[in-house]
Design brief:
Layout (H helix, E strand, L loop, with lengths): L1 H13 L11 H12 L5 H8 L3 H8 L17 H16 L6 H14 L13 H10 L1 H14 L5 H17 L12 E10 L27 E9 L4 E9 L5 H5 L6 E5 L6 H17 L6 E5 L8 H10 L1 E5 L5 H4 L1 H24 L6 H15 L2 H10 L16 H25 L1
Parallel strand pairs: 1-5, 3-4, 5-6
Antiparallel strand pairs: 1-2, 2-3
Helix pairs in contact: 2-3, 5-8, 7-8, 11-12, 14-15, 14-16
GO molecular function: DNA binding
Pfam family, one: HTH_Tnp_Tc5
Protein name: (apollo) hypothetical protein
């Protein structure tokens, strides 16, 4: 008897209908409710079309529960806050900056701290479970981000770069900013570079058979100072931003610093989100001071960019449209890398070499900026900047101006064709013999 009861109990359990927690989106729910309210559909028909329980539709229409879809315990972020977060993730992905889950966790953690909200997360930080539920509530995020990530892993090919230009044009069209393409004063490229204070000098000359030929080092070995440079397609340079590894800026550094340049600091001396945001504010002030028409287009390298939520909102509000260069293509598409930083580094070597010949004082953080300015002023010319934007196809904006021979896939194809040609020629010679 007991065995039969046990068996029947199992049968009953296995035949129970299981409902998915969410089979519909908020947009589908609102559309269904609107069509019912407008007498386009009955509750029964809307339930079948949108796969929403009739009881849910009825309760919302009778104002027993709000139209906003809500099941289970309250989330840490409100409905509107989650929507803004989802919008930010999608917008960043659209601009070519797909977010890693850790970045999303950081964003939520910082937001709760800044707003002094109750934080129920373990150690005050969301984890995989929260992200899984968040993506379930916002399925459009998973799908859209997956597309961007797969693109980021793709090879750098001529087809991929041409598609990137198409996406750029589409973005400008959606933002009602196609006129930027014809205005070089509103097209910018910003990138950071590490400048070594102690450089390898190569060969040195001395007496024959005299082994003890030494050279005094120009600075501390392996010490590098980060410099962030920004240029516009009309040949203008924005004052450089020099970043020092200090917690407190020494007066000696400030005293020897160029008057028109920007100075910053971080504990490590590396560019981080907070510091980059500080620079973007300075960049905006420069735009206003120089009466540059807004919005402007700023191209960034996605691998080096440090975009947090506050900076994202600031740029949106002020009219700084950030667009990511195609992944792994800075040697093809980034003016800073293609034609500007090369001459700058060469002139820096000359300045270092001359300084060592004229002085026994090593290059330190205190005198770095003044010396680097000499190399900068010698290298940064309007014609150099304009040509760099031109060969990258960023102004005039044209994918046909790009040097596609620098694509690895194109090189491989050329080598294969040359090898095939060589093989064919050899076989013809053999036949003649």
């Amino acid at each position: 008897m007991s065995e039969n009861l046990g068996l029947s109990s199992k049968i009953i359990e296995s035949t129970k209908k299981k409902y998915a927690r969410f089979r519909y989106t908020q947009q589908q729910l609102e559309e269904a409710l609107t069509r019912i309210t407008n007498n386009d559909l009955s509750i029964n028909k809307a339930s079948k079309i949108y796969d929403i329980p009739k009881s849910t539709l009825s309760n919302k229409l009778n104002n027993k529960v709000p139209w906003q879809r809500k099941m289970g315990p309250l989330t840490q972020l409100t409905f509107d806050e989650e929507n803004k977060l989802a919008d930010w993730i999608l917008t960043k992905a659209k601009l070519g900056f797909p977010m890693h889950p850790e970045e999303v966790y950081d964003t939520v953690e910082i937001f709760l701290k800044q707003n002094e909200r109750e934080n129920k997360f373990t150690k005050g930080r969301p984890g995989k479970k929260w992200l899984t539920l968040f993506l379930r509530r916002h399925p459009e995020v998973t799908k859209r981000n997956a597309e961007i990530i797969s693109k980021a892993r793709a090879a750098v090919t001529e087809e991929a770069i041409r598609n990137w230009f198409t996406e750029l044009n589409k973005f400008l069209e959606e933002e009602n900013a196609l006129d930027i393409k014809d205005d070089p004063t509103r097209i910018f490229n910003s990138d950071e570079t590490g400048v070594m204070t102690c450089l390898k000098t190569g060969l040195i000359l001395g007496p024959k058979n005299y082994k003890n030929t030494y050279e005094i080092a120009s600075g501390k070995e392996k010490e590098s100072i980060t410099v962030l440079c920004t240029f516009s397609a009309d040949g203008t340079d924005v004052p450089p931003f020099v970043l020092y590894p200090y917690k407190r800026m020494p007066p000696a550094v400030i005293q020897n610093f160029p008057d028109t340049w920007y100075i910053g600091r971080s504990d490590s001396g590396w560019m981080v989100s907070v510091v980059f945001f500080t620079y973007i504010k300075l960049f905006y002030e420069w735009l206003v001071k120089n009466e540059i028409r807004l919005p402007v287009l700023l191209f960034l390298d996605g691998h080096k960019s440090h975009i947090n939520r506050d900076m994202f909102d600031f740029c949106r509000e002020k009219g700084i449209m950030i667009f990511c260069l195609y992944p792994n293509s800075t040697h093809i598409l980034q003016p800073c890398d293609v034609g500007i930083f090369g001459p700058l580094k060469k002139n820096w070597k000359r300045v270092v070499r001359k300084h060592k010949q004229a002085s026994t004082v090593p290059i330190t953080k205190q005198n770095f900026a003044a010396l680097f300015k000499i190399a900068y002023d010698r290298s940064i010319k309007p014609t150099t900047i304009k040509n760099s934007f031109r060969v990258c196809g960023l102004y005039p904006m044209s994918p046909d101006a790009v040097d596609y021979s620098r694509c690895i896939s194109n090189r491989r194809q050329e080598i294969a064709q040359q090898n095939q040609k060589g093989t064919t020629t050899s076989s013809l010679h053999d036949q003649k013999r």
